[in-house]
Design a protein that fits this description.
Helix 4 runs antiparallel to helix 5, helix 5 runs antiparallel to helix 6 and helix 7 crosses helix 8. With 408 residues, this protein is α+β, with helices and mostly antiparallel strands.
Length: 408
């Protein structure tokens, strides 16, 4: 697969043919002899003058990452510009599109072969171009700690396998020596979940990490006030620091001069779990709004009378006389609640309301269909009535109704 990509690149070079003026000759010669700095500058001058050959050359270099970062989106935009000036450049356009189409398989091959940095270059370029599979691979490479992040001397996976405190060598002292040689004093930029805090320290859980809930890292914060404010408990953060001390299986490794850089990207599994928890909170909010709407507008006469009786009853009445329940059950799957592009949640769902009292003994169960909308500002613990709306689409006749009388 790599050989095929090289052959494709050579094919792109072969497309640069025809009659050239002096600057075109110089640009093409620089490109073919791999003097990409000169080729890029000459191509820029040609492109600024509206020369389609210079624009084509810029597109080829962007597509191949020659003398610059790979950028498929820019390569296509450039070659489209060249084609608009001169349709004869369609061959170059097809070659660039073919290269982009083949790059997904190349990136996957690089990943499977352990060439993670090269795989990330292609995956990120594909993601920027709008390729979903490229975006998924880039997320795996970053959230799986396969590559060192910008500013980091090593990835978490490298540290974990080579000299982390949870690992043990075959010879006594071997891992301690490896830590001193390969890791101590090196700069780290990693992502992890906040599991605790104490004084000026943040405790972090990593994946992979120590078993049984033990924290993997202790961050000695350079600015405790700022760090604590930017690190919510359970949140996933990106942080930096200097590797300072090796821990033990139940004792975390230590980073000194640590800083919280901001939130960290979630893996697909982490995002799925976050969405699941958000949906649970939305379902609970809609359930509460359903109960509020039912109590306000749809209770049967006997229940309204019972509420009035309870309001006037003596506080010393038998406690069972005050038992009165409205219970809402939503029977639709959680997937009936989805998040819209503007951040609001919407649900079209079914369920039933159970209305029950102790004295007089009375029960009603009725089915309903309803719609609910919850604002983006809603958070667990907030009052649903301040952040949402619901309406009944239909209320059926009670399918279970039992009573032994009503209240006066």
């Amino acid at each position: 697969m790599i050989a095929a990509r090289v052959a494709m690149a050579m094919g792109l070079v072969a497309l640069l043919s025809g009659c050239f003026d002096s600057k075109e000759d110089q640009a093409t010669a620089a490109y073919r002899t791999r003097d990409f700095a000169a080729a890029r500058e000459l191509a820029r001058e040609l492109a600024d003058a509206g020369n389609p050959r210079g624009i084509e050359l810029q597109a080829l270099m962007a597509a191949q990452g020659l003398g610059r970062a790979v950028d498929f989106a820019e390569a296509v935009a450039l070659i489209d510009r060249a084609v608009a000036i001169d349709p004869s450049f369609q061959a170059s356009r097809r070659a660039i599109l073919d290269q982009i189409a083949a790059s997904g398989a190349v990136a996957r091959t690089l990943f499977e072969g352990g060439q993670y940095r090269r795989a990330l270059v292609l995956a990120e370029a594909l993601a920027d171009y709008g390729d979903a599979e490229g975006g998924a691979l880039a997320r795996v490479l970053i959230t799986g700690h396969y590559v060192a992040l910008d500013g980091s001397d090593m990835s978490w996976l490298d540290f974990w396998n080579r000299c982390g405190g949870n690992t043990r060598g075959e010879r006594p002292g071997a891992m301690e020596a490896a830590f001193a040689r390969d890791c101590a004093g090196r700069r780290a930029v990693w992502d992890g979940h906040v599991s605790g805090r104490k004084d000026a320290r943040l405790f972090i859980r990593m994946r992979p990490g120590r078993p049984r809930g033990h924290p993997d890292l202790a961050l000695e914060l350079a600015d405790p006030k700022d760090g604590m404010a930017r690190a919510p408990h359970g949140g996933k953060i990106r942080f930096s620091g200097v590797i300072a001390a090796r821990g033990e299986p139940r004792k975390p490794d230590v980073l000194r001069d640590a800083r919280v850089l901001g939130p960290a990207p979630l893996s697909e599994a982490e995002q799925t779990e976050v969405t699941r928890r958000q949906r649970q909170a939305i379902v609970a909010a809609c359930r509460k709004l359903t109960e509020v709407a039912y109590r306000a507008n749809h209770m049967p006469e006997w229940a309204v009378n019972l509420q009035a009786w309870r309001a006037s009853a003596s506080r010393h009445e038998d406690a069972i006389s005050y038992a009165f329940y409205v219970m809402v059950d939503i029977t639709s799957d959680a997937e009936a609640f989805s998040r819209r592009a503007d951040g609001t949640w919407h649900g079209a769902y079914e369920g039933f309301v159970t209305l029950q009292s102790g004295t007089p003994r009375a029960t009603e169960v009725l089915d309903f269909t309803a719609e609910c909308e919850i604002d983006e500002t809603f958070a667990k613990g907030a009052r649903p009535v301040d952040h949402g709306r619901m309406s009944f689409v239909a209320l059926a006749e009670p399918k279970v109704k039992a009573t032994d009388g009503g209240a006066d």
